[in-house]
């Protein structure tokens, strides 16, 4: 005989409302870990602030610093917060040698740096995950070939690999199209220099997953290898990939800034934070410190906040630390 004292089982009782997805997400272990980590909260706030500033740069910037018609050379080398002695205009972060507002150049340069970093990481992630799945699942000489290429690439610093790829691509592209293709060449160069870590992690996880019962069952019912890799193995190896992607984003932004600082990155018509730092370095010892200082601080804040988020995500997804 059923226990009618339990209202949830009584006839005609209203079922308990199901929690919303937002409520489930808010009560999850990752959300709880995020709320308990002040460093992660501050890093997320700084990252979100810089990303929004880059996205809405045309709305929040005082001028378009890369529009020649909006420039006034008389505003050149204006000190931060001090009215210009010729025009009387005041710029919060000063101006550079061409009279461009440093605040506006940082916002527009931030857009280039973030775009290159995100696209390069996505390219490296897709390439590395694909090769890692193939190497781990297929094995044999294909596994040996992919891993030996990865081992050889690891013997060289990633920035040198990116420089080499960038130089080869620039030599292939016609001169009249080099500036237009420079950003995409930069993305490919950084992506090809960073795919190895994705491939090695995914290969190791695939070697473990392919021997489990659910993969054996998928083989027995006639699933093709490509479907098994994409629909069964891939979802179970994504956790470390997300951590690597977050940390790699900071490294990709720094790599882009390094290449641009060396003069082989973003073109002068589309300067990134690295290009702005290179321009400011030319005037550092003549007293115009703000041209270098503020873009460098922005790059430091962006890379540090993304790195701290990656560290928190790595700890949050590690079951041994729960």
From TrEMBL:
Membrane topology, as annotated, equals: Multi-pass membrane protein
* Gene3D superfamilies for the chain: MetI-like
Name where it mostly resides: membrane
CDD domains in the cross-refs: TM_PBP2 (cd06261)
- Matching InterPro entries, A to Z? BP-dependent_transpt_permease, MetI-like, MetI-like_sf, OppC_N
**Would you tell me the Gene Ontology cellular component terms?**
plasma membrane
| Spans annotated as Disordered | 1-20
Signal sequence range: none
The transmembrane segments are 39-61, 112-142, 154-175, 181-202, 233-255, 289-313
Question: A biological process (GO) annotation for this entry?
Answer: transmembrane transport
Q: Ranges for the ABC transmembrane type-1 domain?
A: 110-310
Keywords, in A-Z order: Cell membrane, Membrane, Transmembrane, Transmembrane helix, Transport
Compartments, record wording: Cell membrane
Q: Which PANTHER family match?
A: ABC TRANSPORTER PERMEASE PROTEIN, OLIGOPEPTIDE TRANSPORT SYSTEM PERMEASE PROTEIN APPC
What family is this? Belongs to the binding-protein-dependent transport system permease family.
Q: What is this protein called?
A: Peptide/nickel transport system permease protein
Q: Which lineage is the organism of this entry classified under, starting from the top rank?
A: Bacteria, Pseudomonadati, Pseudomonadota, Alphaproteobacteria, Rhodobacterales
